[in-house]
Amino acid sequence: FIMAKQVEQLEKEKKELQERLKNQEKKIDYFERAKRLEEIPLIKTAYEEQRVHDMELWEQQEEERITTLQLEREKALEHKNRLSRMLEDRDLFEARLKASRRTVYEDKLKQFQERLAEERCSRLEERKRQRKEERRITYYREKEEEEQRLREEQLLK
Question: Which stretches are annotated as coiled coil (predicted)?
């Protein structure tokens, strides 16, 4: 009987504990939901404030970027105007430089053409000499062969 009472008492305590935990869980859920419901408008306002702040920052940075670009453009134009005064001098310098380089090029080309003509003539002369020598050797060889053939014919006769 005592054991049964103890088991019953333990089950009763267990049920009470589970019921308390369930109630506590409900309470926590309620508080969390209430907290979130309270936070939603605050989060929305913070988001709007941040969006407005970001937009202002972007506009400020965009204005700064535009002004720096305008300043750079003005400096570039001033630089161009300043350098345009030297344009004639630059063209004159370029013309002198090209003329001097052209004369050097033409001198080298002339020297090359002369060496080329000399080399062609020397090679032509060498080929003429070789052909002449080959013809002479061929003539003497053929003559000797003819003589040899004639001797052989006479021997056969």
Answer: 3-34, 114-149
What are 147's two structure tokens? 């003589």
pLDDT digits (tens, 9 = 90+) for 8-27: 999 999 999 999 999 999 99
Which DSSP symbol is given to 28? Answer: H
- Can you tell me whether residue 1 is helix, strand or coil? coil
Instruction: Decide: pTM greater than 0.85.
Output: no
Token pair in block for residue 115:
């060496």
In the 8-state DSSP scheme, what is residue 157?
Answer: -
Cα separation, 81 vs 78, in Å, equals 5
Q: How far is 8 from 100, CA to CA, in rounded Å? A: 120
Question: What is the C-alpha to C-alpha distance for residues 69 and 79, in angstroms, rounded to an integer?
Answer: 15
Report the run of H or E that residue 111 belongs to, with start and end. Answer: helix 87-156
Residue type, 141: R
Range list of β-strands (E), 52-100? none
**Separation of CA 113 from chain center:** 44
The one-letter amino acid at 110: K
* CB atoms near residue 79 (< 10 Å): 10
Task: Name the CA dihedral angle for 56, 59, 64, 65, rounded to a multiple of 10 degrees.
Answer: 140
